[in-house]
Design a protein that fits this description.
Layout: E1 5-16, E2 19-30, E3 34-38, H1 45-52, E4 60-65, E5 68-70, H2 75-81, E6 83-86, H3 98-102, H4 117-131, H5 146-159, E7 164-168, H6 176-191, E8 195-199, H7 203-209, E9 212-217, E10 220-226, H8 232-240, E11 258-267, E12 271-279, E13 283-288, H9 294-301, E14 309-314, E15 317-319, H10 324-329, E16 332-335, H11 339-343, H12 350-355, H13 370-384, H14 400-412, E17 418-422, H15 430-445, E18 449-453, H16 457-463, E19 466-471, E20 474-480, H17 486-493
Parallel strand pairs: 3-8, 3-9, 6-7, 7-8, 13-18, 13-19, 16-17, 17-18
Antiparallel strand pairs: 1-2, 1-4, 4-5, 9-10, 11-12, 11-14, 14-15, 19-20
Helix pairs in contact: 14-15
């Protein structure tokens, strides 16, 4: 582990209208180390890193980097100094190739001063080969799944040969296998003297790869402690300022009759012969590695994609779902994996995001009734404890946990029997995770049937009444809550599914 001080940030403060995002915080990072930044959403972690990366300008404070006092007015200066950042919110150029995204703004040129696409593709392939990334440099970004886009962003940051790489939630959209791959990459970076500042909400990662941990709360520095001196409960207490003993507040609920029955659901080349029952009051976990077909099952059931075979019954009646509208009418709701891309409507208010799926309910006689909308939105805000200055606030300005609650309220306003939730706590801080889990448990207690996809095994084990495991587009195992273990899930998730 390196001992040479590489970065010192001192007295950093940053205010936004109505919010003191950073209040006189400091941070020291040594070369060749992994330094985790922990804290709830809004604690100031990403804001501090955006100051370091030249995206925000601090109101006060100083930065010392690699032996000198520095000013970082923009991201270009940060990159020249040797500081690169992988952002939590991916922002690829969808129509461009992978190689073009990686070398955007620094394209290799031929002797005529034109972009040398062949050289750019070759450099990208060499980069991918070095770091074991199996993505075609010629593929367009829009053709990639979220996990592949994340790996491209990681490769891009590494390609700058930086002395320090900031990784903001780098594993929020990738599978356990890819997480392991990333951690191996980080180990190699450490060995070459590169420092990594690592922001994550996944506790297990902190203890696996971090040398030191700095905790922020409400824009202030709380503590910097060697990772070896921390355990999970100590870290949670530092982050939230209180003991959080019920990360998975799963209530025992009487499991009722079958609400949805799925038989032989097949989409050729994607999912094969998916069959299961979902009961009232049940949380059914759907586990598996990235690419196993979990999200694809939810999309098929909700009419986002067409299927080639299979039958679905809801409350004993066969339903023919060819579109999300059909699914909503059948009593289903779907919270998608990517809140930003396919969940929230960022340019709309909290109120509009809540009611958009249930406008018919607020339009008796074909006339939209603002009073009904306002009353329903207020009721949902209060029932779900959604923290927002007003219902007119743009949803994009809310924390991830509160955005997720708004999306839950959207579907609750359609009065569903079945809620399908894809990665319910992805990119959400530990305190908000507990709130989302409590909300899910409460909905099950009300008799809702919940089908939950999660890549976090503690979430699968902690919240599920029953667990289905997928691999290669098929269900490879089923476990009761009493018998399921992390080892059993991983074993079933890595099975090679038999050929169709």
């Amino acid at each position: 582990m390196g001992e040479e001080l590489l970065l010192r940030m001192t007295g950093i403060s940053k205010a936004f209208p109505g919010v003191q995002a950073l209040d006189d915080v400091h941070l020291d990072v040594e070369s060749g180390t992994v330094h985790a930044l922990m804290g709830e959403n809004g604690a100031g972690k990403s804001t501090l890193m955006k100051v370091l990366a030249g995206i925000y300008h601090a109101d006060s404070g100083s930065i010392w980097f690699n032996g000198a006092d520095v000013s970082i007015p923009d991201s270009a200066v940060a990159l020249k100094l040797g500081i690169s950042m992988i952002h939590q919110e991916l922002s690829p150029v969808p129509a461009m190739m992978v190689a073009e995204n990686i070398f955007l703004g620094r394209e290799p040129l031929n002797r005529f001063g034109m972009v040398d696409r062949g050289q750019m593709i070759a450099k990208t392939q060499a980069l991918f080969d070095k770091w074991g990334i199996a993505i075609n440099p010629r593929a367009t970004m829009r053709s990639l799944v979220v996990a592949q886009m994340q790996m491209v962003e990681i490769a891009k940051a590494i390609s700058y040969d930086s002395r320090l790489i900031v990784m903001d939630e780098p594993t929020s959209a990738i599978s356990e296998r890819e997480v392991s791959h990333l951690h191996h990459m980080i180990k190699s970076l450490k060995e070459s003297g590169v420092a990594v500042i690592y922001i994550t909400h996944k506790m297990d990662e902190v203890f696996k790869i971090s040398d030191k941990v700095t905790v922020f709360r409400d824009g202030k520095h709380v503590a910097t402690i060697p990772a070896a001196d921390l355990d999970r409960q100590k870290l949670i207490t530092l982050m939230v300022g209180r003991e959080l003993t019920h990360l998975f507040p799963k209530e025992d609920v009487a499991i009722g009759e079958i609400v949805m029955s799925v038989r032989g659901l097949t989409r050729i080349g994607v999912i094969t012969d998916i069959s299961f029952d979902l009961r009232r009051g049940e949380i059914l976990g759907l586990a598996g590695l990235m690419g196993a077909g979990r999200t694809e099952v939810l999309e098929a059931l909700f009419g986002v994609t067409r299927v080639d075979a299979g039958e679905v019954t809801v409350n004993g009646n066969v339903v023919h779902i060819k579109s999300p509208s059909d699914a909503i009418h059948a009593g289903m709701g779907l919270l998608t994996e990517d809140r930003k891309k396919t969940g929230i409507m960022g340019a709309l208010s909290v109120r509009d995001n809540m009611v958009v799926a249930a406008l018919a309910r607020f339009s008796p006689g074909g006339i939209l009734r603002p009073g009904m909308i306002e009353a329903a939105a207020k009721a949902e805000r209060d029932a779900l404890d959604i923290k927002t200055p007003s219902l007119s606030q743009l949803i994009k300005n809310l924390s991830g946990g509160n955005q997720q609650k708004v999306l839950v309220s959207r579907w609750l306003l359609t009065s569903p029997d079945i809620l399908m939730i894809d990665e319910p706590t992805r990119g959400i801080d530990v305190g908000a995770k507990s709130e989302i889990h409590k909300l899910m448990s409460g909905l099950a207690k009300q008799g809702k049937a919940i089908l939950m996809v999660s890549s976090e095994l503690p979430e699968i084990l902690g919240m599920s009444d029953r667990v289905l495991v997928m691999a290669g587009g098929r269900i490879t195992a089923e476990f009761s809550r009493e018998e399921v273990t992390q080892e059993k899930v991983l074993e079933a998730a890595t099975l090679v599914a038999p050929a169709a």
